[in-house]
Amino acid sequence: MTSHHVTPGNLRGFVQAKMRNLRNGNSFEHRFSSTEKVERAILDTQQMEYLYSDPSGHHFMNQETYEQITLDDEVLGDSMLYLLPNTVIQIDFYDEKAVGIELPNTVTLEVVDTEPSMKGATASASYKHAKMETGLTVSVPPFIEVGTKIIIDTRENKYLSRA
Questions:
Q1: Domain 44-102 has what CATH class?
Q2: 19-52: per-residue pLDDT in tens?
Q3: Burial 114-138 (b: 16+ CB within 10 A, else e)
Q4: How far from chain centre, in Å, is Cα 40?
């Protein structure tokens, strides 16, 4: 999930990694020394289109075979806050079981709720919170109003620009 290379002073360097067990979904942290070898898991990646959500889960369709699968909130996590129907994403499979998704770097969403902007308050670089159509909350500049479509960076959950 994440990794960080550390070289403390006059000690040997190591890699601190946060990993997820692909079989049961548990995440844990492990410290690897510079002499350890790790076998890489081979994932099958497929392009799938998000269709809709209902109480049984979130439904996706394979773009090539038109086969449909249902994923639960545990696999998707907070990623659903960036998805609108008909969005095409990459889904990673391990032993024919979905283990995670890869979102596009940016998404375009519409603002449905935000505070009104204050006139004349342009001297400071103040931001306000805006709620998107998917329920995601992002900090945006004061000139963004309800109904504006904005581009959001999915990696850092940050406002980039107006669409």
A1: mainly beta
A2: 877 777 678 899 998 888 888 878 899 999 999 9
A3: beeeeeeeeeeeeebebebeeebeb
A4: 22
The two structure tokens encoding residue 158: 């940050």
Parallel, antiparallel or unpaired: strands 128-132 and 106-114: antiparallel
The per-residue pLDDT for 10 is: 81
Other C-beta atoms closer than 10 Å to the C-beta of 90 total 14
Q: What's the token pair of residue 119?
A: 């006139």
CATH 3.30.450.40 describes domain 106-162: no
Higher pLDDT, 91 or 123: 91
- CA-closest candidate to residue 110, choices 47, 48, 158, 152: 152
Given a cut of 70, whether residue 119 has pLDDT beyond it is no
